[in-house]
User: What shape does this take?
Amino acid sequence: MNQSIAVIGSSNIDLIAQVAHFPQPGETIGNARYSQAYGGKGANQAVAAARAGGNVTFIASVGKDTFGQTMLTNFSKEGINTDYITQSGEEPSGTAIILVNEAGENCIAVAPGANALLSSELIDEARIAISGAEIILLQLEIPVETVAYVVGLANRLGKKVMLNPAPAQPLSDDLLKHLHYLVLNETEAALLVDHPVETTHQIEEAANKLLQKRVQTVIITLGARGAYVATRREQQMVSAYGIQPVDTTGAGDTFCGALATALSQQKKLNDAIAFANAAAALATTKLGAQPSAPTAAAIAALMKEQSFSSDEDF
Ligand code: ADP
Assistant: This one.
């Protein structure tokens, strides 16, 4: 059964200028190449969940401007319910201004704009969507007080919350103990447990510390190494799918969105992790965040192809 997912988070427009070199203070570079992309972790995860076959409602705040309108049209095209996206005249839509040099390095200035207006009052207005959802998916690009409010509300309503604590910031024990799923990369895990998370031993130690804080399921994504999944009952390392990566931007967002979709379809945890792992691997084979999120059919095809070859190994 396909239950719904409420994604609550940020939506940005990425304004990208490719430059030969980064400008010095006061310098103007006249021959930059401009492009524009949809971004924001909330939006990326909502799109990834919808492409993977999820029934998604996105709860967000955008500006009453051209970017806000374009984003709404894009979400509708992706089949996402936009009834709870507020357009505010007080702040412009969230933007990320990104300079990319010839070495592929970037300098980024994020202006949260309307994302910062996603308040507990707006969450109350979306209460029906939250109470009707199977999974609530959150990140940290909206005010942390709003995240805490949603977690409290979801807990009272008996809903499962999945948090992707990105960008990394410290979180209270009270918030952690109400999470069903915490999905985080090595950098985010290192900040929460206060030690490096690189070796297998450090990964296990980090997962155990987070379980001790009463998170029910800890999933540490490990790039090309795959993911480490830990509950109080079992822990395991899940290898990544074998693909040729082109651009890993948005891999973590696709993992979260696809995982939420699989769980909303009542898949078992191990199967849901395999689905998310395959979706995220496919996301690394194309440029960009939202454009690279795969469809359910593409994910199923990769899972079939590679479980066939791994079956042959035994
Ligand atoms: P983030 O984008 O948040 O830094 P990761 O780099 O950990 O997240 O990647 C998220 C997931 O994307 C991984 O758990 C894995 O499933 C997939 N992934 C990332 N890089 C690769 C790769 N080179 N090959 C296969 N899968 C990958």
Remarks:
- The pocket of adenosine-5'-diphosphate is lined by residues 185, 221-224, 226-227, 240-241, 243, 245, 248, 251-252, 255, 277, 280-281, 284 (CB under 6 Å).
- The radius of gyration is 19 Å.
